[in-house]
Design goal:
Layout (H helix, E strand, L loop, with lengths): L1 E10 L2 E11 L4 E5 L6 H8 L5 E8 L2 E2 L8 H4 L1 E4 L11 H8 L9 H11 L1 H5 L10 H13 L5 E5 L7 H16 L3 E6 L2 H5 L4 E6 L2 E6 L4 H10 L4
Parallel strand pairs: 3-8, 3-9, 6-7, 7-8
Antiparallel strand pairs: 1-2, 1-4, 4-5, 9-10
Helix pairs in contact: 3-6, 4-6
Length: 234
């Protein structure tokens, strides 16, 4: 579904991605682990067109994403939940969900998609008419994911969904992510929480210094310890 070859990008004179290669097959949950500052967020932002690439290719279902405007990605079925949530703080939960539908109403049933998001995150149904900025951190993360889901994405990219959340909240968010995948959405999950991610993903990539340095489909305790010791500075 998503094929990245020799991707390079960065900020100003700083090259962050140093020729990165990665594949996400349809139906997978693919995890991307790495310490702070290795380029994980830069990768997702480059895929989404928020940062201009400086070389390489990003192919999505045979289309070159690097030639497509970021505003067109939702119509192609790509949703990106950015680090920091980026919800509309002064809008209600319902308004946040409704505004996400603007560019995809021609291909989805709006009410069905909103109901789907609320079923995954029942807390949001209780807060439907509450302003986004008054929600807890966990509820804001749920809203950010639900807002992406109302667009009925084929590929969902999640950037650090567990960041700053209590363990019990992380468990709920990751349970929802597993259900999203079971319902047919392919997921690229960027995480620092190696333990939580390892319980969820089909394959793991590890990133360091702007490149993929390790890949495994053997997501077990022994493999995880190796990843933590060698690549994550644990």
């Amino acid at each position: 579904m998503l094929e990245i070859e020799d991707l390079k990008s960065g900020y100003g004179e700083i090259m962050v991605l140093q020729g990165l290669n990665l594949v996400v097959n349809q139906g997978e949950i693919v995890g991307l682990l790495g310490a702070n500052g290795v380029g994980k967020t830069t990768l997702l932002n480059t895929i989404s067109g928020l940062i201009k690439s400086r070389g390489g290719t990003v192919s999505y279902l045979g289309q070159n994403l690097l030639r497509i405007a970021p505003t067109k990605l939702l119509s192609l079925g790509i949703a990106h939940v950015r680090q920091g949530r980026h919800i509309f703080a002064k809008m209600t939960v319902l308004e946040n969900l409704q505004v996400a539908l603007d560019s995809v109403r021609h291909r989805v049933n709006p009410q069905e998609r909103i109901e789907y998001g609320l079923q995954l995150f029942p807390k949001l149904k209780e807060r439907l008419h509450q302003q986004g900025g008054t929600l807890s951190g966990g509820e804001q993360q749920m809203l950010a994911i639900a807002r992406a889901l109302v667009t009925q994405p084929k590929l969902l990219m999640l950037d650090e969904p567990s960041m700053g959340l209590a363990p019990i909240v992380v468990q709920g968010v990751f349970t929802a992510i597993r259900q999203i995948a079971q319902d047919g959405t392919t997921i690229l999950l960027v995480e620092q929480n190696a333990v939580a991610a390892s319980d969820l993903v089909d394959r793991l990539y590890v990133m360091d210094m702007g490149k993929i340095v390790y890949e495994t489909a053997q997501v077990n305790e022994q493999e995880l310890e190796k990843i933590k010791d060698v690549y994550l500075g644990a």
